[in-house]
Amino acid sequence: MDLTELRWRFGLGIAAPLRQPPGIPLKLRNAAVLMAFQTGPKGVELLLTQRPRHLKAHPGQVSFPGGKQERQDKSLLETALREAEEEIGLPANNVELLGTLPQHHTITGFNITPVVGIVQRPFNICLNPGEVSALFTVPLDYLLQPNNRHVMLIQRRQQPHPVTFIPYGDRLIWGATAAIIDTFCAIVSHDIQRITKRK
Predict the structure, then answer these.
(1) How many CB atoms lie within 10 A of CB 75?
(2) Cα–Cα distance for residue pair 144/156, rounded to 1 Å
(3) Residue 164 belongs to what domain range?
(4) Phi/psi of residue 79, each to 5°?
(5) How far apart are CA 138 and CA 62, in angstroms?
(6) Which of 35, 39, 34, 36 shows the shortest CA–CA distance to 2?
(7) More confident call, 59 vs 61
(8) Crossing angle, helix 3-12 and helix 176-188, to 10 degrees?
(9) Could you report the per-residue pLDDT of 140-194, keeping only the tens digit for each?
């Protein structure tokens, strides 16, 4: 899949609301992440970050550039773009915005809006060491293969909770990041059953 096909597949995708898992806090704080795609050595690739191990929240986990909506942000799109520039040095004016995915609720109390975009030109990577320890890419073709995306039910507070895992090389993408990737892949593949079956 190239970037042109990615654009029209995403535009035609059926962004059905997710069935949110049980145990979600009643009060959620708005946040946004940027799913940034670019053309790389292995075709279309998704940019992902690794969090430093010294952080209290989700140390060492794979994530998207993104974070909590701040008072100065006019929209969640602006939140995602601001965080991407702060975390990896990706200028907001270097991103072609395609749209958003359904909001993803987390058991840690966040309402995450995934913003989908395409990096238009190469940029000077500048990692914020307080938030990012590494930036890497995963080929979209790898992510689109259903057998590379695994959903397991894990008991939490005596209730089954779906957790998504995507192994890639020596890294493991899991949790909210993997679930958002799974939703994106289902949408561009027009796999409506996979989008709505999580419960």
Answers:
(1) 12
(2) 29
(3) 3-196
(4) -60, -50
(5) 12
(6) 39
(7) 61
(8) 90
(9) 999 999 999 998 888 777 777 788 999 999 999 999 999 999 999 988 887 655 5
pTM over 0.90: no
List the one residue out of 199, 197, 183 whose CA is nearest residue 13.
Answer: 183
Q: b/e string for 4-18 if b means 16 or more Cβ within 10 A?
A: eebbeebeebeeeeb
The total domain count for the chain is: 1
Give the ranges where the chain is alpha helix by DSSP (H). 3-12, 76-88, 140-144, 176-188, 192-196
Q: Which domain CATH number covers 190? A: 3.90.79.10
Contact predicate 182/194, CB 8 Å: yes
> Which residues are paired to 38 by β-bridges?
45
Direct distance between the N- and C-terminal alpha carbons of the chain, in angstroms, rounded to an integer = 30
Encoding tokens for residue 112? 């995450």
Q: Say how far apart CA 188 and CA 185 lie, in whole Å.
A: 5
147 in helix, strand or coil?
helix
